[in-house]
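Risk register update: the risk of archive-format incompatibility is retired. Evidence:
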Amino acid sequence: MTWTAPKVERTTRIDGLATVDERRMLEGWLTWHRETLLAKCSGLNGDQLARTTVEPSDLTLLGLVRHMAEVERWWFRRRMADEPIGDVFTGPADGDEGIEGVRAACAERDFGLFRAEVTASDAAAADRGLDDTFTSSRGVTVSLRWAYVMMIQEYARHNGHADFLRERTDGVTGDG
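Archived output:
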């Protein structure tokens, strides 16, 4: 049987974030965007997830999932928590980690790795305050608050890419 990306059950409603405290708002928006990326993939098999559909770009839905696993690991675990761990996926260290090397046969595994990174990222940030700081790879001191905002914008940008990729795959649009 061919693996298919599962339906996403939303855990966060954006209208429920309108009046919560700052931490819950940032965590909520990040969760909503994580779930949106997975919703863009829902119902597609590995071949569909690994297909390029917006020429001349080689970007794929599976590549976006892999890339965001790398971004999660980079900011929350490698930079903020200073964990001595490598990349989730191998590839060039050019800011597009995870996008290359996509294999349809590995879609289920790659989704599992993404989910594991999200869980590990949340655990790394759980006991830290929004004002806690760490140093970026460029030597800039940033706060956990900054990391949340940066992650939200990264997902928002890539979810826009995912909109086009999904529509070109099977015509599905919307937030899922």
